[in-house]
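Hi Y.,

Following your request, here is the sequence exactly as I used it, all 380 residues.
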Amino acid sequence: MTTSPRYKTEAVPDGVKGPGVLHLHCALPLVRDKVVNHLQSSNWEHTANGATLSIRTPHDDLTSLVLPLTEVLSAWEQVEVRALFEPDGRGMQLNDYFAVDSLKNFLAKTLSGWLIDLMQNNRLTTVFQPIVHCKSSDKVFAYECLLRSMEQGEVIYPNRILDLARGAGLLFQLDMAARRTAIREAAAHGLTSKIFINFTPIAMADPVYGLRSTVEAVDELGLKREQVVFEVIESELIADVGNLRGILDEYRSCGFGVALDDLGSGYSSLNLLGQLRPDYVKLDRQLMHCVHEDGYKALIAQKLLETAQGLGIRTIAEGIECQSELDWLCYCGGDYAQGFHIARPASPPPLPTRAVTPSENSAAKVMRCAAAASTPLYLH
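Below is the corresponding structure, written out as tokens. Let me know if you'd prefer a different format.
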């Protein structure tokens, strides 16, 4: 097995180095206030000139300044803010003004080195969340492997890492590093259940290499191929469904399973269900939230369950956060459940926090909830 990722470093932008001054132009007052509050709470030296903030960066590494900004500002706010870095010891030149870019692109460029360091030095880690049998939820069916990292004691969640990797052109490298980390840590914990590993198909710049290195990692670490299920995420961004189906067929031919995430979050995912024919499908957490109290959600979710079952696809409901949601799911024929009501993600892999098997009165509860909702729930 290859011991380190095949990084395409020639495609990685040069990182921005300090010390110097980072100038941020915040046209929207609300965005400016958010940045100012962050700078003040973090004791960053800065000056203000109208909508422009100038921040002194005394260190060579700007990570400690710019990484928190990925949390402080939303993606669209990062696009709205304009950024220009002025290094010490060199006056501003005419060409510098043409280098003004969105803060989002500046962050990606600046943090590309940080991302590579995460991957090369095994600073990525995995937490595990159990997926349980719906009607016997103290029995673990599988674990989803969830990407995490730590920076100065702060947990870095996958959405932030993915956004930065996308901006820096490092999605392929991150996808490979994350799946290797998941496989390695699942093997280290001796898991014998199925493991669900998130798969970003738009990152598959080299699917042949990705498949080969994954098979090598699984075989070398002693996992069974049939244990591993690749969960397609960010399905709304898929442009070439035919190409993805070809990739997934190759994964199936090697003995892996395939799951489609976030069914019910949009038409595109429902359309993909018929085209990709996954082994498992996950119902979106927003759809499942308070499904027992919302007749519209209940009708949609129940029809999705029926559709998947009619196609021979097993269903997993995400985001189960209370007993009533689990009762509804089990009464309506769901196969598996996942969520904080079962257990929070952790390492080592946690067992269900308590026995949450549906009660004998669950059917009556579901029927009462359906009767109270404005739209009837059709149960067959």
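Confidence is low (pLDDT under 50) at residues 1-15, 371-380.

Thanks again,
Q.
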